[in-house]
Write a structure and sequence with these properties.
The protein has helices at about 30-45, 70-80, 110-115, 120-130, 220-230, and strands at about 10-15, 15-20, 50-55, 60-65, 95-100, 130-135, 145, 160-165, 170, 175-180, 185, 190, 215-220. With about 230 residues, the chain is of the alpha+beta class. β1 (about 10-15) and β2 (about 15-20) form a beta hairpin. The model has no long low-confidence stretch (mean pLDDT about 90).
């Protein structure tokens, strides 16, 4: 499962966690190693195991410190890694609708100007992205998707904008996500999606799993309003 020379590395996180690192830069190999370990832990839970939290190049193993300790958990993880490459779960394929109407896409003109493209070309590039869920973070249901095409990759804005509506489809650098709450963001707002990432199901709270593939499908305002029950 090792993805790079000198990895995996192990770091204690307080008295209840172990961070397993497979690299220090984002790469497919490092993330595949994260997914394989996540799957292995799901199949071979040790006494005291609470959860595994996968991210871009590392995975946090949380455990009950009254039952297990960091050194013991590290030995379990090392044994799982030593078993050799286990196949990660088959990724789900998800489709999210997105409406690019002007009031839903206030940053589309600016992205087009910065990229030297027409607004339609920016939309086409966004729809053509090869998106994969790498991690959840920052806010509930914030699924970080990597795969924004190079042509429309922009750094974050110098300052965030307040009151960005839930469902906004936003991009920054190689990343994209669908917001789930009305919050500030310094990312570029390209559209809005009626697709609900927060499901309301306690057993499957998020629509996407880490590792899933996501594609965007363009919808018009009528389809958006119908999906929203308007």
């Amino acid at each position: 499962m090792s993805a790079a020379s000198g990895f995996p590395r192990f770091r204690a996180v307080a008295e209840h966690g172990l961070l397993v690192e497979f690299g220090d830069v984002l790469s497919d190999a490092a993330h595949e190693a994260v997914l394989r370990l996540d799957g292995a832990l799901a199949s071979a839970r040790f006494p005291g195991f609470r959860e595994a939290v996968p991210a871009y190049v590392n995975l946090l193993v949380e455990f009950d410190p009254l039952v297990a300790d960091c050194l013991g958990v590290q030995k379990v993880v090392q044994a799982l890694i030593a078993l050799g490459p286990a196949s990660p779960r088959t990724p789900g394929i998800r489709v999210a609708g997105v409406c690019y109407d002007a009031d839903f896409a206030p940053d589309l003109p600016a992205v087009a100007a910065a990229a030297g493209l027409s607004e339609e070309a920016v939309i086409a590039a966004h729809l053509a992205g090869d998106y994969r869920v790498y991690m959840y973070g920052f806010a509930p249901g914030y699924a970080y998707l990597a795969g924004v095409p190079e042509a429309i990759r922009l750094p974050r804005k110098p300052a965030p904008v307040r009151g960005v509506e839930a469902g906004s489809v936003i991009v920054a650098g190689p990343q994209c996500l669908i917001t789930t709450l009305k919050m500030p963001t310094g990312w570029w707002i390209l559209g809005r999606s009626p697709t609900r990432v927060l499901t309301g199901d306690a057993n499957q709270p998020f629509l996407f799993d880490v590792g899933d593939r996501v594609s965007f499908r363009r919808i018009d305002r009528a389809e958006f309003d119908a999906a929203e029950g308007l």
